[in-house]
Design brief:
The structure holds two protein chains of two kinds. Chain A contains 20 helices and ten strands. Chain A is mainly alpha-helical. In chain B, a hairpin with a 6-residue loop joins strand 5 (about 70-75) and strand 6 (about 80-85). The chains are: A mainly alpha, B mainly beta. At the A-B interface, helix 1, helix 2, helix 5, helix 6 and strand 9 of A face helix 1, strand 25, strand 26, strand 27 and strand 28 of B.
């Protein structure tokens, strides 16, 4: 009996000693793991394609930083929304999707870093290598520049963290850099590298339109330098140098008609430099977010940021850009195949932006140019992020701020708007031109106001709109409307020493050990 | 292969051993009344240490002199003495000691123990007719029945199941306990077949299951076995109805217009067109009570049938059950069909083979989002009462669709489109439409087979080898129709098909050696197991179907196949374990058990994939000592102590030790004409090859005492459970650049507590019997360590608020909120609430406040109210849980009453966040009629459109409520028809009829629909638990 016991135990022990390694390790099916990646040309191309995920992110190119544009005097929150209202009033609120930008941009930076780390040593064609690395450098710089101006300064707060490629997990929680100027310098360096590697726009071939190209790199360098110039005027020269590179390349021009810039067929026109690619399936829902709340019962518009009378009045008489930019009560426009007379009971300023309305014009728009899913009202209109007109304005600004004459580039923009040329244009002229030309775009007047140091003057004023009532059920013209001017938003308090940067989303502060919140938030 | 050889070797060498060549006495010990064999009875040669225990079939064998005397005893029976007189076969029948009938408890891997001999903390619950008469699941019926076991309904959704927490939450994903069904981990079971449930509460008892346990503990399910004898048939049927016991109250159209107008006046903004009586008088009238429209009375049906019987060599059990439950929300249901067959062959005296096969089919409609602002219950609260369920024209006639059916209505009727009122009521979806449009079909089928071979090669040794194999096929199909009514439109339809299959097998071989030497009794067990699990699925969604009628809802009619890429996933997982356990007891006085298990899992990197989990426990049965033996008052007194460790990898994602790339979510459409949709790859998390087992270590001290031969029983336990190397997503700063935080072994959570049970029962001379059990547990949960972190912020969100954090020194998943200090009654109070900085500057702490707004406590004294002012204010985990169960029998009547409650917990009432705030234009809770604007004594702040003070956007204790409740969980009254009706013949049918009520009464201060909200206590309008009344009958013949 004891023998049995012994044998039994021995057998069990033998079984226990059987090597388990084969039985306990598996290869993964589906998406690859890093040890089977970075090998083929296709791997490099798919890694580069992974740099475009932000184009569908609500918080990036949907409402995103438009919440901070809403802090300017151009717009009010067009519907009652307490979270939006709190941000507009500079009482911190983290409830809206603007908080997504910080994590999404660092995810983009991480993907760029992985490419920059792995692709140079890959045994693939030089052409692919250049294009893939070029995109990685471009988007790394682009990502830093997308968030740095909102959160970083050259003072007490400092810049935003710079994450170098290849850091181990426990080294990743890097602290903020000393100054946002360090961020800008880093961006310019990356954009330079990208410019050297990327082809010209047309060289990509039509199927790859939407990817960054040489001119886009130069335009962004000009813009980064312009932001840097608020701290060091010598950067204006860089802005001018790179604006000239764009201008002198002769590859871009202003479209003849301002309104045409915001048409789907002109997504990649001569004025295009860089946009967020979008489609009726996925992309930016900004057009839907700015559309009339509930789209007159025909589409799920969200009615978010609506223009103020202050913005309307910034346009000079006869400025062709005004009707293309803003729908005012009584304006005629097409919506889903029908001509309508614009008026809104919903918009708190009684108006809405017209820049992104092209996709909604046709009778069959829903499902063709507009996403049928009202939860994600994207359209096939690309959202311009930097366009040729802005390059001209940047050059004008750099010249004027250095005390030189910026009339030539400025008047090119004015001419297209149907306005008479300025002579010896002033800073105020430039500021107003930029406001009118880029209203409702991601270039974001609030950043400009802060950059120019004039935010307080414009923020601490009540903002106005219209209250509109229709006299008949279906108004046929402006005469059928009863329009009253109203105060749409009371004056706010802007504390220049605090509000020149926005609060870093609190979740980010709580997730990090080293990240310091901006002062007094 | 090598394993297979080992297995044969093992069994072969065992059977080839010769039996001892001595004369011996053998026989069977059985119950005089039932003729059932008695397991574990002691057979001793009088005056010597020579003795034996009976095996599972009641058999013993003993070598003795021919003139010896045998003493046969077993607790609960009268001892029996007999002379051998040269006989080689002595069968003994023992008679009941009546009062002292004692339970046998299964404690894992086949070992059974008398309850009075246990050294570990386990609780056993027999699942008899009283439980099966109830309308809940078998696990749901245990709520409030067992000290230290918290069972909570996560929702009233017919497709959800209750959660079980044993001795406090330790780990995020390891909370679900392991179900071991007749010795097989993870096997399915049907309620009808369950005979008893044993919960292994301490680590010492659970440790033998190693890492499969998770941190949650083990639930052993014992099902009915085939029994020898005439075929018995048992049938059961019941029918019941359920309804929500409390529904939320919202404003009528008239009230809404008033509140909304007043709110607009607070901000000095104009009223929207939709509530302007001049523009939209229709909006001033109530047409629908949306809450009443979405709730209904649901029917519950249960049927079961089982057959049992056979001969000694071949016996069989067969059962089938079918249950269908309609939810209290429209169009939701769950159904299941279960079949079990069990055949036992006794091939010869020492080899037996049995086969169990289970088939389970489930289907249902539910699983709907109820717990957020986009959920159905929220929609019903938000929907304007002026709207109608079905679209109506201006004359009040229904508008029909292309198929002649009524169209659903939106927030405003279509005819009002041109009035410019469409946006007034926000993005709300008609909740009746959402429910009625639910078009899921999700048949799931599971087939599970266990074959076990049992060999008793020699006396005292038993080898059991079991092979289980299962396959589970899940199918999910859904058609989402276009939603075109005004509100949140979606002009797109789609069909989604998902198919998944899980295959798994588990092979376990266990050898048990059981021997008694005089007063020494020992039991040794050793085993080996391997398991493998493979999962695969495929998922496809096709969009844009021109027609939506039932027969067109087929992929072939979809026109857009490109929008979503089909997906596929495939994973494999395996585990290898060895384990051993030894038990020793001396003279029924001292008991000692020790076990050890080693597990290795494929989920971890192969270099650190194994863990060792030891356990030890001991007991001293003082009542067996000379000085207490035969004491007339104290019939049992025992002290217990145990310690053990269990592991957990439940929370580990497959392949998490590798650096995995993931495809980006949405296409980006590049190209001049959007012709080039791209989807790239990128890392979304970091690998952690160093990840190791999360370990839960538990120490338990307890005692059991019984008086008056067991009529009165009292037990108490103190435990301390430390979950170490907690597997959690380690918060990583976003600059790290991944969207999913990597997993790590971080920190330690401690749960400690005290449990008491008290039972008293007796039968009076008049035939009245009663039994009352009460249990009470106190639990303290505390995070002890989080590695290099002070806290974890948990991402659970309600309207952008994240109220949960875990911090060292606080309970796991605590509320972290700003404290409120009442309501500002006047501007003077606001002006007086100031902060003075170092330079003497005085600033208002809440500059944006108006009278009627909340006053927030500036905890850190920096003069502004923000996240830094939040503090820890309790958690959803109850400090106290208690239950009371009483059963009464008189003649043919039986009555069972179960009460159950929790105390010392809090709930974050997210419904208030959603239904008190006016900003979105949604309808609101009727509570706002009592807000500060209408009643200055109210604690509900002033309702305003802009909420500049952040009353409803500040995560504050305003939303925290006491979550304590006491429930009359169940009352069941049964009546067994007199046998005389059936002629009193042997084998005459036994028929019992009963009425049962579930959740009959609830006492709570919580203001939401129900205090059992799940979701870590964050209530977003959860599908409420229902009140059920049912009637049924049991028939046995």
């Amino acid at each position: 009996m004891k023998t049995v016991l012994k044998i039994g135990i021995l057998c069990l022990a033998l079984a226990g000693l059987t090597s388990c390694e084969d039985f306990l390790t598996y290869n993964k099916y589906g998406e690859p793991s890093s040890d089977r990646f970075w090998m083929t040309e296709n791997d490099a191309l798919r890694a580069a394609d992974g740099l475009y995920f932000w184009t569908g992110e609500a918080g990036v190119v949907g409402r995103g930083f438009m919440h901070y544009y809403n802090c300017s005097d151009d717009v009010v929150t067009g519907r009652t929304q307490a979270g939006c209202a709190a941000m507009k009033n500079f009482t911190a609120d983290y409830s809206r999707d603007v908080v997504d930008n910080w994590p999404k941009m660092y995810q983009l930076i991480k993907r760029c870093n992985d490419i920059i780390l792995n692709v140079p040593d890959m045994n693939i064609s030089e052409d692919t290598k250049d294009k893939v690395l070029g995109q990685a450098y471009f988007f790394r710089a682009w990502a830093y520049f997308w968030i740095a101006p909102y959160y970083g300064d050259n003072g007490e707060n400092g810049g935003i963290p710079i994450v170098e490629p290849g850091l181990a997990v426990d080294e990743l929680d890097v602290p903020r850099v000393k100054s946002v100027r360090d961020n800008y310098a880093y961006c310019i360096e990356d954009f330079e590298k990208a410019a050297a590697l990327l082809p010209d726009f047309k060289e990509w071939g039509e199927a790859d339109y939407g990817r960054p190209h040489k001119t886009a790199c130069w335009a962004y360098i000009a813009k980064v330098a312009l932001f840097d110039a608020q701290y060091d005027a010598s950067s204006y020269a860089t802005t001018i140098e790179y604006c000239d590179k764009v201008i002198n390349s002769g590859k871009n021009r202003l479209l003849d008609n301002f309104a045409d810039v915001f048409k789907i067929e002109n997504n990649y026109s001569d004025e295009y430099i860089f946009s967020s690619p979008s489609s009726e399936v996925a992309g930016s829902f900004l057009p839907g977010a700015l559309l009339e709340n509930k789209g007159w019962g025909q589409y799920n518009g969200w009615g978010y940021f609506t223009p103020t009378i202050e913005l309307v009045e910034a346009f000079e008489v006869g400025d062709k850009r005004l009707p293309a930019t803003i729908l005012q009560p009584g304006d005629k426009f097409f919506f889903l195949g029908q001509e309508k007379v614009y008026y809104s009971n919903e918009s708190l300023s009684g108006m809405q932006f017209n820049k992104y309305m092209d996709p909604f014009k046709a009778a069959d728009a829903i499902g063709t140019t507009v996403n049928p899913n009202g939860d994600n009202p994207t359209t096939s209109l690309n959202i311009p992020l930097i366009r040729y007109a802005e390059v001209l304005l940047m050059k004008a600004e750099a010249l004027i701020w250095q005390g030189q004459n910026g009339d030539a580039p400025l008047n090119e923009v004015r001419k297209r708007a149907g306005l008479s040329p300025k002579q010896n244009a002033t800073k105020e002229d430039l500021m107003n031109e930029r406001r009118c030309e880029l209203a409702g775009e991601f270039s974001n007047r609030m950043l400009d106001l802060i950059r120019w140091g004039v935010a307080k003057n414009y923020v601490e004023k009540p903002l106005h709109g219209y209250s509109v009532k229709a006299k008949i059920q279906v108004p046929q013209s402006k005469d059928d409307l009863e329009i009253t001017e109203i105060e749409a938003w009371p004056s706010r308090t802007f504390n220049a020493s605090v509000n020149h940067v926005f609060p870093i989303p609190t979740n980010e502060i709580s997730k990090s050990k080293n990240l310091k919140q901006n002062k007094s938030y | 292969m090598r394993l297979l050889v080992t297995y044969f070797l093992l069994t072969f060498c065992c059977v080839s051993v010769l039996f001892a060549q001595q004369i011996s006495v053998r026989g069977v010990v059985f119950d005089a009344k039932t003729s059932e064999p008695i397991i574990g009875a002691t057979v001793v040669q009088t005056g010597t240490a020579n003795g034996a225990l009976t095996n599972i079939d009641g058999e013993y064998q003993l070598e003795v002199p021919a003139d010896a005397e045998l003493q046969i005893s077993y607790l609960g029976y009268k001892p029996f003495t007999t002379k051998v007189n040269g006989r080689s076969q002595i069968n003994v029948s023992l008679e009941d000691d009546l009062v002292n009938l004692e339970e046998v408890v299964v404690i894992g891997y086949g070992q059974e123990s008398r309850k009075s001999n246990l050294s570990v903390a386990v609780s056993k619950k027999d699942i008899g007719d009283d439980v099966k008469s109830r309308s809940t699941s078998v696990i749901g019926a245990l709520q409030g029945q067992i000290a230290g076991v918290t069972i909570a309904n996560n929702s009233g959704d017919p497709m959800s199941s209750p959660s079980v927490t044993i001795r406090g939450k330790g780990s995020r994903d390891g909370e679900a306990p392991l179900y071991v069904v007749d010795g097989v981990s993870g096997a399915p079971f049907n309620m009808e077949d369950v005979e008893s449930i044993t919960i292994l509460k301490d680590a010492a008892s659970a440790a033998i299951y190693g890492t499969n346990v998770g941190s949650g503990g083990v639930i052993l399910v014992t099902t009915k076995k085939a029994k020898e004898g005439k075929i018995t048939v048992s049938a059961r049927a019941s029918y019941g109805v359920q309804s929500a016991w409390r529904k939320p109250k919202v404003l009528t159209a008239e009230e809404y217009v008033k509140v909304r107008t007043d709110a607009a006046n607070v901000d000095g903004v104009s009223i929207p067109a939709g509530i302007d009586p001049d523009i939209y008088p229709y909006g001033q009238q109530t047409h629908t009570n949306w809450i009443d429209e979405i709730f209904r009375t649901g029917k519950i049906q249960r049927y079961a049938l089982s057959l049992n019987g056979g001969s000694e060599s071949l016996k069989s059990y067969l059962s089938a059950e079918y249950n269908k439950t309609e939810g209290t929300l429209l169009n939701t249901y769950a159904e299941n069909l279960g079949v079990k067959a069990n055949i036992d062959f006794k091939i010869n005296k020492w080899v037996s083979l049995s086969e169990r096969v289970n088939y389970v089919y489930t289907n249902g409609r539910g699983d709907i989002n109820t717990s957020s602002h986009t959920g159905v219950t929220a929609s019903a609260m938000f929907m304007p009462p002026s709207a109608t369920v079905y679209e109506m024209d201006q004359d009040g006639n229904y508008v029909l669709d292309d198929y002649g059916k009524r169209k659903f209505g939106g927030t405003v009727p279509l005819w009002a489109k041109d009035l410019g009122v469409a946006g007034t009521f926000g993005e709300v979806v008609n909740p009746v439409a959402t429910l009625m449009r639910l078009n899921q079909n999700r048949p799931n089928q599971q087939l599970f087979s266990t074959t076990s071979l049992v060999i008793d090669p020699i006396e005292h040794l038993k080898i059991r080898s079991e092979f289980s194999a299962g396959t589970k096929n899940n199918y999910y199909e859904n058609f989402s129709v276009r939603v075109l009514e005004i509100g949140k439109t979606n002009d797109e339809n789609s069909r989604n098909l998902m198919y998944s299959r899980t295959n798994n097998w588990l092979w376990e071989t266990v050898a048990t050696y059981d021997q008694m030497f005089g007063k020494h009794q020992m039991n040794v067990m050793g085993g080996y197991s391997m398991s493998y699990n493979s999962y695969r699925d495929a998922n496809v969604t096709v969009y844009n179907f021109p027609d939506e009628d039932e027969y067109s809802q087929n992929l072939v009619n979809g026109t857009d196949w490109t929008k979503t890429k089909p997906s596929e996933s495939r994973t494999q997982e395996s585990q290898v374990s060895v384990y051993a356990r030894g038990s020793y007891s001396y003279d029924d006085r001292y008991f000692l058990t020790a076990s050890i298990r080693r597990d290795a899992s494929s989920k971890l990197y192969y270099k650190n994939n194994s863990g060792i989990f030891p356990a030890v426990s001991g007991a001293w049965k003082i009542s067996s000592e000379k000085f207490l033996k035969d004491n007339p008052v104290i019939s049992l007194l025992k002290l217990r102590a145990s310690w053990g460790q269990i592991g957990n990898v439940a929370g580990v994602r497959n392949y998490s030790y590798m650096s995995n790339l993931s495809q980006t979510g949405d296409y980006t459409y590049l190209g001049n004409s959007h012709q080039n949709p791209i989807l790239g790859l990128g890392l979304t998390t970091f690998p952690n090859p160093d990840l190791k087992w999360e370990t839960s270590e538990q120490t338990d001290l307890g005692f059991d005492i019984e008086f008056l031969e067991g009529k009165l029983a009292f037990g108490a336990d103190y435990f301390i459970k430390n979950t170490k190397d907690l597997i959690e997503e380690v918060p990583l700063a976003s600059v790290g650049g991944v969207s999913v935080a990597p997993l790590g072994n971080v920190g330690k959570v401690q749960n400690s507590g005290v449990e008491f049970t008290l039972g008293y029962g007796d039968t009076s001379k008049g035939g009245f019997s009663y039994h009352v059990d009460a249990n009470f547990s106190f639990l303290r949960s505390e995070v002890k360590d989080l590695g290099d972190r002070d806290f974890f912020a948990h991402g659970l969100t309600i309207r952008a608020m994240q109220p949960l954090r875990s911090k060292v020194g606080q309970p796991w998943y605590s509320y972290y909120v700003v404290k409120t200090d009442g309501i500002f009654q006047s501007q003077a109070e606001i002006d007086a609430y100031t902060h003075t900085d170092q330079n003497g500057n005085i600033t208002k702490i809440q500059p944006n406040a108006k009278p009627g707004d909340q006053k927030f406590v500036d905890l850190n004294g920096d003069g502004i109210i923000n996240d830094n002012d939040r503090e820890y204010m309790g958690s959803y985990t109850p400090k106290f849980t208690y239950g009371l169960n009483a059963s009464f029998g008189y003649k043919n009547f039986d009555l069972n009453i179960a009460l159950q409650g929790v105390a010392g917990n809090k709930i974050f009432n997210g419904v208030k966040v959603m239904t008190y705030a006016a900003g979105q234009g949604w309808n609101m809770s009727a509570d706002v009629l009592d807000s500060w604007g209408y009643n200055h004594n109210s604690d509900i702040p002033l309702i305003s459109m802009s909420d500049t003070n952040g009353n409803y956007s500040t995560v504050s204790d305003f939303f925290l409520e006491n979550g304590s409740y006491l429930r009359v969980k169940n009352i069941t009254l049964g009546y067994t028809l007199p046998k005389s009706l059936f002629g009193n013949a042997p084998g005459a049918p036994n028929l019992r009829v009963y009425a049962s009520g579930e959740n009959l009464l609830t006492f709570t201060k919580y203001s939401g629909m129900d205090p059992e909200v799940g979701n870590y206590g964050v209530d977003g309008g959860t599908y409420p638990v229902s009140r059920v009344v049912s009637f049924g009958l049991n028939l046995t013949f």
